[in-house]
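wait is this the right file?? whatever heres the structure
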């Protein structure tokens, strides 16, 4: 399984402008083969911080995702409304709840 944990810093205005393209990105990504979960959220303690969480069956699924039109549209929107993204990618194995 591939895990993506990302943070994006942006102005409130940029987040509002990007909201529709992010909504489309989420909806379309969840339809993709190999997508287990995909979500954007606003940090409860910092409204200028978006959290992005992704789970993919395998690396190929993530690579295919990065070539889709909805990702291309998101990148184009980010170019018009800059946000600072920091993303980390992990290969992981799911374990049972440890508590």
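ok assuming it is, sequence goes like this
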């Amino acid at each position: 399984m591939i895990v993506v944990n990302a943070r994006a810093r942006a102005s409130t205005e940029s987040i509002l402008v990007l909201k529709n393209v992010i909504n489309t990105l989420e909806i379309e990504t969840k339809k993709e083969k190999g997508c287990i979960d995909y979500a954007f959220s606003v940090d409860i303690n910092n409204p200028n911080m978006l959290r992005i969480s992704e789970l993919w069956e395998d690396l190929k699924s993530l690579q295919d995702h990065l070539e889709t039109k909805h990702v291309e549209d998101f990148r184009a929107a980010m170019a018009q409304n800059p946000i600072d993204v920091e993303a980390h990618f992990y290969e992981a194995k799911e374990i049972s709840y440890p508590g």
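Residues 12-29 form the longest helix (18 residues). so i think its the right one actually
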